[in-house]
Amino acid sequence: MNRLLIADDHPLFRAALLQAAASAVDDAELTEAADLDGVMSALAAQPDTDLVLLDLRMPGSRGLSGLAALRAQYPGVAVLVVSAHDEPRLVRRVLDHGAAGFIPKSADPKQIAEAVRTVLDCGRWLPPDLARAIAALPADTADSALAAKLARLTEQQFRVLSLLSEGLLNKQIADRLSVQERTVKAHVTAVFEKLGVRNRTQASVLLRSLDLGDAL
Fold this sequence. Notes:
Elements: E1 3-7, H1 11-24, E2 29-33, H2 36-45, E3 51-55, H3 65-73, E4 78-83, H4 88-96, E5 101-104, H5 109-120, H6 128-135, H7 141-151, H8 155-165, H9 170-177, H10 181-195, H11 200-208
């Protein structure tokens, strides 16, 4: 049985994705989430989920940060990104950060179902009218390098990095994660080493580079 997670904060569009996904796969187990915390909770409960349909912009996630979190913490789970914004450069960045495909919100149910089937069959799906333009764009070496670095972080280290980028101090992070402060310090040291940075500012700048700003 295939397990799919539909993550979108708009109930009507989430329902449309659920319906299209259900039509694509027989006997699929479908779960839904309306924010990034819900996505992470669902994956923690079912880490063998096969595919996540992930809206780029929802509570807890802006830009590529949600995708990066999923790829870092659950590398075995395929991700199909969903967005109303389908500029080729944005889609290229989505692919560079490990997405298995991209579904524009203008896609019809048949296209969504096709995308789901393709990715579950270990393929990559892009909108036919965008595929050529996206293929013509070279991979961004900075995005590829950052994705590789983030993939080296453990689940807890990624959480610490996210809280660092919010400006929290070690004690505040420890309270938020319900761990001891010395544990946070060890995680911070490991994060700096794996990302190749020297301080909190540099680490935060790297993570904030995933924010697509006015593109969303």
